[in-house]
Write a structure and sequence with these properties.
It is found in: Cell membrane; Membrane. The protein is built from 17 helices and 2 strands. By secondary structure, the chain is mainly α. Strand 1 and strand 2 (about 325) form a beta hairpin.
Length: about 500
């Protein structure tokens, strides 16, 4: 395969757009919890830790749950290109609101809402445009291309973490949020320029969706109405019965968890039952549903980076290097730095595996990712025991955890993007990319809820927390590996199921 085939010209343009968008998002995310718990006199909101991490979970989950309607808008009306343009503008408005909010809660929350809506429009559609650059059967090239694209995400993340994190903690929170707005503006201008060149003709307005006959269209409409109605009745019933408490941030986070799970199930069933799918497409939808669940578990662990691990870095880690104290937010940069270093190795490995005929099932990749993310928390168990004695621990513990988590992420996230773009039914590609990000939404919310009980003033409880995170990740990871071969054969995934004469892995 030629280098142009692996990395077509449009890929670099999308790499740069995603880089600047992720600069804005991760730069803001690095200081979000720290801003929320900072005293009002120092420019923060002065919230309790439990409420702050719950808000973090609500926000990060909202960013990804809105990717589903963002993909729907693109598939049905605007096309990916217009959805990305509108989303970028809304994100810029959101960051400007954060920069001027100060201690005004309403303005700050409005800014978070804008960023969530804008990201929901941008995120699934830029990924679907990457998928447009490759043939369906080019699995190795597609995985390598998405790995390269994923590196753009993390170049932006590390730049955003350093710049916005430093400005926010050292100069003032509004400087950090303002830097994120400038970065997103750079991404928007780059996308407009690329649309006239390398991306010309990509992400166009979709053709009008037609059902094969009137009976199929009628069934689709009835099924959609029934699923929406059932979801509304379920949520209303839970609220009236008191199961959902909307009087606190933690309660709202729990309610959002129910909402996200309901939306995910309803969306999946709607496409599966009323999407006019062939038998092969339905089998592949089952595969995507299983990968969705695995991804949700993974992100519920991985997204501890912005909550429990961020607090661990701030309160329990020795960050002093000579006369300089490393800002706690800078630990967020370890993951994107490792991504940048390791991505070329992973991309080269996927291409080599394809050349040699190695069939490494997507289920094996996801299973290994779950096991590794659990091992990362196991490494923190002895660190938490040291912290329980009142001694701040070496930064090497977090260094090792982020390194292991990065390897896990590279086994799951770019591979998941590639797989969803390849296996999704043609007319639902952007929506299925939104469904993929919905897994991150659910996982992010669970991450906030898992961290809400964390109390660094009594670190003796932390070993138990990290052990739960370990076992809750390793068990489903092992299960995925065990079912990989029979499930791949059943789903008839080309180049995923082992065939006679090939080296199975």
């Amino acid at each position: 395969m030629s280098r142009t085939g692996r990395y077509p010209p449009g890929l670099t343009a999308l790499f740069l757009v995603e880089m600047w968008e992720r600069f804005s998002y991760y730069g803001m995310r690095a200081i979000l919890v720290l801003y929320l718990i900072d005293a009002v006199a120092d420019g923060g909101l002065g919230l309790a830790t439990a409420e702050a991490v719950a808000i973090y979970g609500i926000y990060t989950s909202a960013v990804y749950i809105l990717a589903l309607p963002g993909g729907w808008v693109a598939d049905r009306f605007w096309g990916a290109r217009r959805a990305i343009l509108v989303g970028a503008v809304i994100i810029i408005v959101g960051h400007v609101l954060l920069a001027i909010a100060g201690s005004a809660v309403a303005v700050f929350m409005s800014g978070l809402a804008c960023i969530a809506i804008g990201t929901g429009l941008l995120k699934p559609n830029i990924s679907s445009m990457v998928g447009e650059l490759y043939d369906k059967d080019d699995i190795g090239g597609r995985d390598a291309g998405f790995s390269f694209f994923y590196m753009g995400i993390n170049v932006g993340a590390i730049l955003g973490g350093f710049v916005a994190g430093y400005l926010g903690e050292s100069w003032g929170w509004h400087w950090g949020f303002g830097a994120a707005a400038v970065a997103m503006l750079a991404g928007l201008l780059n996308f407009i320029h690329a649309g006239r060149g390398a991306l010309q003709g990509k992400g166009a307005r979709p053709p009008i969706h037609h059902h094969p006959d009137a009976a199929s269209a009628s069934f689709d409409h009835r099924a959609t109405a029934a699923l929406v109605g059932a979801a509304a009745v379920l949520i209303l019933g839970l609220m009236l019965s008191g199961w959902l408490n909307l009087s606190s941030a933690e309660g709202i986070a729990g309610a959002m968890g129910v909402l996200i799970a309901t939306v995910a199930i309803g969306f999946f069933l709607n496409i599966f039952l009323a999407g006019d799918l062939t038998a092969d497409e339905k089998r592949r939808m089952v595969v995507l549903g299983i990968l969705f669940l695995a991804a949700a578990v993974f992100w519920s662990r991985f997204e501890q980076a912005g909550s429990s691990l961020s607090i661990f870095a701030a309160d329990l880690t020795d960050r002093q290097i000579g006369m300089f104290e490393v800002p706690a937010s800078w630990f967020q940069n370890l993951n994107p730095a490792f991504i940048i270093l390791l991505t070329p190795l992973f991309a080269a490995f996927w291409l080599m595996a394809q050349r040699r005929g190695w069939d490494i099932s997507v289920f094996v990749k996801f299973g290994l990712a779950l096991i590794l993310v659990g091992v990362g928390f196991l490494l923190l168990v002895p660190a938490a025991k040291i912290a329980a004695t009142g001694t701040k621990v070496s930064f090497l513990f977090l260094f090792g955890t982020f390194l292991i988590h990065t390897c896990a992420e590279l086994l799951l996230s770019p591979v998941g993007l590639s797989t969803f773009s390849r296996l999704a039914p043609e007319r639902f590609v952007s929506q299925m990319m939104g469904f993929w990000f919905l897994a991150a939404s659910l996982g992010s919310l669970i991450a906030g809820l898992l961290a809400s009980g964390m109390d660094t003033s009594t670190p003796s409880s932390l070993p138990a927390l990290f052990n739960r995170l370990f076992w809750g990740s390793v068990a489903p990871g092992v299960l995925l590996i065990l079912i990989a071969r029979p499930l791949s054969r059943w789903a008839m995934l080309k180049n995923e199921a082992s065939e006679p004469g090939k080296n199975a892995r």
